[in-house]
Amino acid sequence: MLHEKLYNAAFCLMRGFMGFIDHVHPYVPQRADSFGIIPGMTVVDYGCGPGRYTIEFSRLVGAGGKVYAVDLLEIALQDTEARLKEHGIDTSGGFGFVELRLAQGYDSGIPSEVADMVCAIDMFHHVDPLPFLREAARITKSDGVLLISGGHQTRGIIKKHIAASGLWEATDDTKQFLKYKKK
Question: Which domains does the chain have, with CATH numbers?
Answer without folding.
Answer: 2-182 (3.40.50.150)
